[in-house]
Fold this sequence. Notes:
Layout: H1 3-17, E1 33-37, H2 39-49, E2 56-61, H3 64-72, E3 82-89, E4 92-100
Amino acid sequence: MSPNVLGPTLAMLLLLIAxxxxxxxxxxxxxxxxxxxxxxxxxxxxxxxxxxxxxxLQVAMTIAGQAVVLQMSGLCQPDSVxxxxxxxxxxxxxxxxxxxxxxx
Length: 104
């Protein structure tokens, strides 16, 4: 085999056996917490922690309406907002809210 053919062939072979690249999870926002808070408390905590844009915020909300307030505040990237049920104890359920912090 000539050296001109070996280089591209070897490169193609390495591409086939290399594991696929994984997307890295965004860094966590320091204001994240499982303690129930209002939207105003979460916004203040994010400002105090100086969470960078793109970091993941995960919080527990006091009531569902506060999650809507937080979503509409502009703090989060609109397409990144997710809600879920958290169970801090077997007897209790709270609304979990997560998003990626938007650029200012």
